Amino acid sequence: MTLTIAFIVLCAINNLESVTPQEFPDGFMFGVASSAYQVEGGWNVSDKGENIWDHLTHSHPDSIADQSTGDIACDSYHKYKEDVALLKDLGVHYYRFSLSWSRILPNGYANFINPDGIRYYNELIDELIKNQIKPMITLYHWDLPVTLQTLGGWTNPILADIFVDYANVAFSHFGDRVPYWITFNTDCRGYDGDIIPPAFNQSGIANYLCGHVTIQAHAKTYRLYQSKFKTSQKGEIGIVSMGVTWYDEQTNSNEDVEAAERVRQFELGYYTNPLMGNGDYPSVVKERVAYRSMHEGFPKSRLPEFTPEEKAYIKGAYDFIAINIYTANLVSDAPEADYKNVRYHNDVKAQFSLDPSWKNTSAPWLKVVPDSIRKILNWFKNQYNNPKIIISENGCADSEDFDDHNRVMFHQQYLSEVLKAINEDQVNVLAYTAWSLLDNFEWNDGYTQKFGLFHVNFSDPNRARTPKLSARMYKQIIANRKLHLL
Ligand SMILES: *[C@@H]1O[C@H](CO)[C@@H](O)[C@H](O)[C@H]1NC(C)=O
Ligand SMILES: *[C@@H]1O[C@H](CO)[C@@H](O)[C@H](O)[C@H]1NC(C)=O
Ligand SMILES: *[C@@H]1O[C@H](CO)[C@@H](O)[C@H](O)[C@H]1NC(C)=O
Ligand SMILES: *[C@@H]1O[C@H](CO)[C@@H](O)[C@H](O)[C@H]1NC(C)=O
């Protein structure tokens, strides 16, 4: 099999030999990503507390496509050395992974620090460093300790300070070896709908409270790092902007063009304008929520306000912006919805569709739209005066166990567009992160959707990992640092 794969890769490259390859700039970094709940397993070892994904998968198995859990997942809790060996073989410059909050602080609070949680991440970080791989650590990737959810989760303003306490523990124990921190893989959909935990289902209210507290938690964490750790640890801090989608107008009508930009401000600018813009939410978001709130009979806007002091510490609280990008949607304007229906979607006032010509993947939401990555990079460049950008996730769902040609093509096409954004549009892109290192627990899709460069045999108690064709392709791109544009 190894020979077959090598042969296919060589053929793919030879076919393109007529075109001049373009190089990635000096210092450009390649990485791969994972998140704690999706790969670690070890859900109940040595004092680890329960988080909201443990809770959901155990109490409502029907909300997961295959009724599975992350109890064992890829067993990276035990097999991290093997994971690092795969990373080493790929030649990646960094590994983006997340910390399990409830593994470090079992009840969410900083009064008890679990020694086994500290040991586990210290060993993972040390193993990475020993192999010349930089850790890029996400502090929060969706697995909130259940105790804190009971307090109302991210709708409760006290969570911002509780998060800062957790971040302080992480910086104190690990920060001496960590050059890149991502505070949040932001996502408040669990407060909007009834599927993703905590399934608050208070659209138009709870999701804005969640975002408001998340932004403040991020900003306070950034300020803490600057005052207490930056001088000695010299790391950089960013946040992932919500969403995985680029929004394009359906037609060139003024209504659709405006609707598409409105959606971008609601979905992308919502988190980044406070930090990278004027310290506040985008004006179209403020106007729309205030307008509908008034007609719905609310005494004031459902969108919370930042005080002047909050704006001052939020504005500028970032070193880089991180972007997860997979696909695109087409947007058209929607009629004003009935004021009886209080919903985020009605604030946005847009309809979404997919272009039937976009290539399918195994995930219904994920269509192959390579230029979406170039467009989103340019949008951030133009909105916020050319900030430093790390592409923190990009990847393809594909059901082939080993010969994942669709994924190979996906990464080559998207990376081509990244190169165009860098070389032709002068976007300040520092790094590209493939999602994901391993096939893993894909949230509500369980193990039914696979994104790994490495296959994981989930029927095997050893969770054997095997490189797919895409792992070999990625390794080659990292080694050559160039690509024939597609
Ligand atoms: C941990 O969970 C597993 C199921 O995943 C169970 O078999 C085991 O007994 C649990 N261990 C402890 C210490 O609770
Ligand atoms: C969530 O809210 C919507 C709209 O109010 C409602 O139709 C739906 O039944 C709710 N879901 C649950 C699980 O309560
Ligand atoms: C994607 O799948 C749908 C449904 O199976 C099919 O109708 C459509 O033609 C496919 N699109 C492409 C571009 O192949
Ligand atoms: C996965 O592991 C099981 C149990 O060890 C084995 O029977 C099966 O052949 C493996 N599948 C693959 C694709 O390697």
UniProtKB/TrEMBL annotation:
One Pfam match: Glyco_hydro_1
Keywords (A to Z) from UniProt: Glycoprotein, Glycosidase, Hydrolase, Signal
Stored SUPFAM superfamilies: (Trans)glycosidases (SSF51445)
InterPro entries on file: GH (IPR017853), GH_1_N_CS (IPR033132), Glyco_hydro_1 (IPR001360)
Molecular-function annotations in GO: beta-glucosidase activity
Signal peptide range: 1-18
Source taxon at top rank: Eukaryota
PROSITE patterns listed in its UniProt record: GLYCOSYL_HYDROL_F1_2 (PS00653)
GO biological process: carbohydrate metabolic process
Quaternary assembly: Homodimer.
Family stated for the protein in its record: Belongs to the glycosyl hydrolase 1 family.
Name used for this protein in its record: Beta-glucosidase
Source organism per UniProt: Aquatica leii
